[in-house]
Amino acid sequence: MLSVSNLNISFDNNQVLEDFDLEIETGRIFALLGDSGSGKSSALRFIAGLDAAQNGKVVLDGEVLSEKGVHNVTPELREIGMVFQDYALFPHMTVFQNICFGLKHLSKIDKHTRVTELLELICLEGIEEKYPHQLSGGEQQRVSLARSLARAPKLLLLDEPFSSLDKSHRIRLISEVREILKKAKVTSILVTHDESEADLFADKVGNINNKQLHIN
Predict the structure, then answer these.
(1) Does 147 lie in the same domain as 50?
(2) What is the pTM of this model?
(3) Are 159 and 86 in contact (CB under 8 A)?
(4) Residues 1 and 71 occupy one common structural domain
(5) Same domain, residue pair 71 and 158
(6) Fewer Cβ close by (within 10 Å): the C or N end of the chain?
(7) Which class for 12: exposed (0-12), middle (13-18), buried (19 or more C-beta within 10 A)?
């Protein structure tokens, strides 16, 4: 499903990643593990088309998205969803409006159908009219996940989405989100600095060390 090859990223002559290669099969969950500043989030942002690189090729489901460090396909056309650490929900919008944000092309009936499907998937039926401040941290994270899945992306990128939760809630949510992604059969990459989190969540783990990716 995803192939990243020969990715090189540097900032102000400081090499962050060197000859980064990654292959992920359809429906598999991969964890990208590394210390702060190791380049794991930079790799994620390049795959998403948000940041530039000195070199690197990204192929998703047979389509070349980036080549030689240049993006051929813009982020909004990549069929890639993202879940961020701060959830990035719009506080002035209801859960329904948040999930529907990227579904402007659908009719009103189709929007309601899709939101209902996603709320069932994340086990939060009946909260359509609530606002983010009325939800717990775990509920906000699941709504953020539903919004990212709304357009049925081929790839989902998760940038340290569990780090702001306390340990007891984090372990439970990791299991819940993994189950949701497996049920939806979405190929995913989790970025984290927590080894136990990576082991719980992913089918396979890669560690960035000394600018290189090492896959366990």
Answers:
(1) no
(2) 0.87
(3) no
(4) yes
(5) yes
(6) C
(7) exposed
What is the tally of structural domains in the chain? Answer: 2
Q: Name the helix (H) or strand (E) containing 168.
A: helix 167-184
At 190, list the tokens: 């989790």
| pLDDT-derived band at 85, boundaries 50, 70, 90 | confident
Q: Tell the residue number behind the tokens 């290669």, with chain if given.
A: 21
3-state secondary structure of 145: helix
Q: Minimal CA–CA distance to 124: which of 96, 103, 150?
A: 96
C-alpha 188/C-alpha 202 separation (Å) is: 9
Two tokens at 162? 């569990």
Tokens 């919004």 belong to residue: 147
What is the DSSP annotation of 130-142? --GGGS-HHHHHH
pLDDT one-digit tens code per residue, 153-204: 999 999 888 877 777 778 888 888 898 899 889 999 999 999 999 999 999 9
